[in-house]
Amino acid sequence: MSQWKTRPPCLPAGLMLEIQSPYAQQWVQAPGYLVIRYEYQDNASRIIPMDGRPHRKDVDLTWMGDSVGHWEGDTLVIDTIGVKEWALDDSIHMPPIGGSRWHSDALHVIERVRFTGPKTASYDVTIDDPKYFTKPWMLNSQMNLHPTWNLQEFVCAEDNRCANGKCTPSDAQKER
Questions:
Q1: Does residue 67 sit within a domain?
Q2: Is 10 inside any structural domain?
Q3: How many domains are there within the chain?
Q4: pLDDT tens, 123-160?
Q5: Cβ(17)–Cβ(90) under 8 Å?
């Protein structure tokens, strides 16, 4: 387990926290790549090759890991390894849970995204970490397209809209 009992402020959120954040995301398709930009915690980005390549050998552990993607019919599949040991979710800011739940450097994440409507997609994540869990488990949710949302600059605690687990919408996210 990491040397921290709670997630220190101002460090990157990491893959799992970015995936679960209520902040805006931007998904950009480019030839051979998918780029996902996250507003939350320092505007992290993932650049995901979509050309069928395998994971790199001897992957360096990073906050967002090494992702590769491909299509299975109408479902986008993103496979990620090489994620630094870090908080699995933001439970440290959600009383009464307190503390935090972690993943190890053996984390393997598979995301599956499939459009279910013009502005909705199913989003299924399989989490496998043999150092922390006895078997893989899934998180199922829905993603919604918000065409009026724009990524905002996020500067550590200055832009924290979710203090103590109580989120408020940014100006861009308020209904217009």
A1: yes
A2: no
A3: 1
A4: 999 999 999 999 999 999 999 988 888 888 776 655 55
A5: yes
For the chain, give the number of residues.
176
Could you tell me the strand order of the sheet in which 108-117 lies? 66-72, 75-81, 108-117, 120-128, 137-144
**Amino acid found at 34:** L
End-to-end C-alpha distance for the chain, whole angstroms: 45
Q: How far is CA 164 from CA 4, 97, 98, 106, 172, in A?
A: 18, 11, 10, 29, 21
| pLDDT tens per residue across span 62-108 | 989 999 999 999 999 999 999 998 877 765 545 445 556 788 999 99
Residue 157 lies in a domain: yes
3-state secondary structure the chain: CCCCCCCCCCCCCCHHHHHHCCCCEEEEEECCEEEEEECHHHHCEEEEECCCCCCCCCCCCECCCEEEEEEECCEEEEEEECECCEECCCHHHCCCCCCCCEECCCCEEEEEEEEEECCEEEEEEEEECCCCCCCCEEEEEEEECCCCCCCCCCCHHHHCCCHHHCCCCCHHHCCC
**CB neighbours of residue 155 within 10 Å:** 12
